[in-house]
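Final report, Chapter 2: Outcomes

The project's central promise was a pipeline that accepts a single protein chain and returns its three-dimensional structure in a standardized token representation, suitable for archiving and comparison. That pipeline is now operational. To close this chapter, we reproduce one record exactly as it appears in the project archive, with the input sequence first and the structure output second.
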Amino acid sequence: MRLHILRHAAEEEIHGAWMTGELASHGHRISPGTLCPTLHRLEADGLPTSGQRVVDGRTRRVCKGTEAGRKALAEDRKALGELAREVVGGQAP
């Protein structure tokens, strides 16, 4: 879930309701009670920043990736690539 959140936050502003729907489209049924603490934890780590915005007529807390978040995303992608190479064949560097 972290990887997915960081990827989208690096590309655009996201909010919890949208992210819940995005994760659901990939088969992940995440409740706001799970997602919101995750977003708050990521923000406490400095990976996204957040602020209030009106989105589709509703006030939402939106998150946007930071430089630290983009760096964490790159590191996570590298680790995921290494794991995938190990699992599907070939050697990780």
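Archive annotation: The CA atoms of residues 35 and 80 lie 21 Å apart.
This record, like all others produced under the grant, will remain available to the consortium after the project formally closes.
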